[in-house]
């Protein structure tokens, strides 16, 4: 059973993370409107999305150090303030340059929230309740792909694009009040000096990788994509060498991956993220390729996936705490494969997306919990940061690869290219079974 204190922490962190997850998708539906209102081409207004994503990616690596230096509660509150302030400023933005700058501020705050949330919950829950709390923290990521486009479409149609940002403010205020009152404080702070060299290597490296992947998906190649990917890969490799040399004093200690539970779990999450985010790209594109449909119709088609995930998440948490992550994780991946196979055969439908959601609700909480189960408490912030980085790169890679595949196949096969593209995602998700089957067996916690 969860304690009242743990339930209170769950409520506080879910409320704090849900708007940051929604903001990653909510603006997508308003790109055309923003371009018209601000009088700029789509290539410029697209940076309201890209800037937010890059800021998220660059901020995540400092999370472990910030938690150790200032404490998880103080870091959480600061992140919420930054995200809320960025939301207000985005709402009053007077030009596209101002809007992009304020979206970056939003991203800086939002990038810290998810790894801090995982750290808070993993520490409070202990190994015996990790599955249940990871099911809770997965709620925002389950709902965001379905609710983001829907909420954005409603706000833009009935109010103004500025309300896509103003809607965050009351949620942030309530989340701040809950954080001040409910989150535990006073933890020991042992972080030393910030690893500036590691920060200078990893943050720009991740930003370059994500940028290169986004350009790859948009242009199916090109100089910008190649330069971004090359620079990003070089900087990340240099960071890994630096971290191995510096050890526990590095920004992120890659030596943590000597733990089998963390390594197999993160590998499974990476492969799974590549495939599933490919599905999330294909579904709305397929919907909008049908004559007479719009963005809202696309959002409604994705919604059953969120419903299916909500159904199985509580079960995933309980099963993981009782029998370990391997069985529910593998069962979830197989279920996702069944739903994706249906999409490849007859096209995405509400039933197929619901089946994918059922599997998704099993995969994410169980495998995420297994990443932390065998780690000491002091290693959790670094592990949470590393896992978030891997998932973020995997999601960007999935969207980029499937976008390139779809563009290439569309030239020859037209609408039939969607079926072949779903087959690609099917194969990628299937690869996630290999590390998932290697997750250590559950050992009951004394």
Brief write-up:
By secondary structure, the protein is an all-alpha fold. 80% of the residues lie in helices and 0% in strands. The longest helix is centred in the last third of the chain and has 34 residues, at 380-413.
Describe it.
- The chain is mostly helical and 446 residues long.
- The chain folds into three domains: 180 residues, MFS general substrate transporter like domains (Growth Hormone, Chain: A, Up-down Bundle); 56 residues, no CATH class; 194 residues, Up-down Bundle (Growth Hormone, Chain: A), CATH 1.20.1250.
- It is 80% helix and 0% strand.
- The chain has 20 helices and no strands.
- The two termini are 15 Å apart.
What general form does the structure show? globular
What is the highest CATH level, the class of the largest domain? Mainly Alpha
Give the helix tally. 20
Order of helical and strand elements: HHHHHHHHHHHHHHHHHHHH
| C-alpha end-to-end distance | 15 Å
Number-wise, the strands total: 0
Strand count, sense and barrel status of the largest sheet are: none
CATH architecture of the largest domain: Up-down Bundle
Low-confidence stretches: none
Chain oligomer state: single chain
Structural class: mainly alpha
Q: Averaged pLDDT, please?
A: 77
- Output the CATH homologous superfamily of the largest domain: MFS general substrate transporter like domains
How many domains make up the coordinates? 3
**Helical content (DSSP H or I, runs of 4+):** over 70%
CATH topology of the largest domain: Growth Hormone, Chain: A
Rg, rounded, reads: 21 Å
């Amino acid at each position: 059973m969860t304690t009242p204190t743990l339930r209170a922490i769950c409520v506080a962190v879910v409320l704090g993370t849900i708007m940051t997850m929604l903001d990653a998708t909510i603006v997508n539906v308003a790109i055309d409107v923003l371009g018209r209102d601000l009088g700029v081409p789509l290539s410029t207004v697209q940076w309201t999305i890209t800037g937010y994503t890059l800021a998220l990616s660059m901020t995540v690596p400092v999370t472990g150090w910030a938690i150790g230096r200032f404490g998880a509660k103080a870091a959480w509150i600061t992140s919420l303030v930054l995200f809320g302030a960025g939301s207000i400023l985005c709402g009053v933005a007077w030009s596209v340059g101002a809007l992009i700058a304020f979206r970056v501020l939003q991203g800086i705050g939002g990038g810290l929230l998810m790894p801090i949330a995982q750290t808070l919950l993993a520490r409070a829950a202990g190994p015996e309740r990790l599955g249940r709390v990871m099911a809770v923290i997965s709620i925002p990521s389950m709902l965001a792909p379905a609710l983001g486009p829907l909420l954005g479409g409603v706000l833009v149609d009935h109010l103004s694009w500025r309300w896509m940002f103003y809607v965050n403010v009351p949620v942030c205020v309530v989340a701040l009040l809950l954080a001040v009152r409910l989150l535990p404080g006073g933890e020991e702070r042992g972080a030393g000096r910030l690893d500036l060299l590691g920060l200078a290597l990893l943050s720009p490296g991740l930003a370059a990788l994500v940028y290169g992947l986004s350009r790859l998906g948009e242009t199916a190649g090109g100089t910008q994509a190649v330069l971004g990917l090359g620079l990003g890969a070089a900087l990340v490799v240099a960071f890994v060498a630096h971290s191995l040399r510096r050890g526990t004093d590095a920004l992120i200690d890659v030596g943590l991956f000597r733990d089998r539970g963390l390594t197999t779990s993160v590998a499974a999450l990476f492969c799974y993220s590549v495939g599933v985010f490919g599905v999330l790209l294909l579904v709305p594109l397929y919907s909008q390729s049908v004559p007479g449909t719009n963005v809202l119709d696309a959002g409604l088609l994705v919604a059953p996936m969120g419903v299916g995930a909500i159904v199985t998440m509580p079960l995933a948490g309980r099963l993981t705490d009782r029998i370990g992550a391997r069985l529910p994780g593998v069962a979830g991946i197989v279920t996702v494969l069944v739903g994706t196979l249906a999409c490849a055969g007859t096209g995405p439908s509400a039933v197929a997306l619901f089946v994918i959601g059922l599997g998704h609700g099993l995969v994410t909480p169980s495998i995420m919990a297994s990443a932390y189960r065998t780690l000491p408490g002091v290693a959790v912030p670094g592990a949470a940061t590393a896992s978030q980085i891997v998932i973020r790169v995997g999601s960007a890679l999935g969207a980029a690869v499937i976008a390139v595949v779809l563009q290439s196949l569309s030239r020859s096969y037209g609408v039939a290219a969607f079926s072949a593209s779903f087959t690609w995602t099917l194969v990628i998700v299937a690869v996630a079974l290999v590390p998932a089957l290697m997750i250590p067996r559950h050992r009951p916690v004394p």
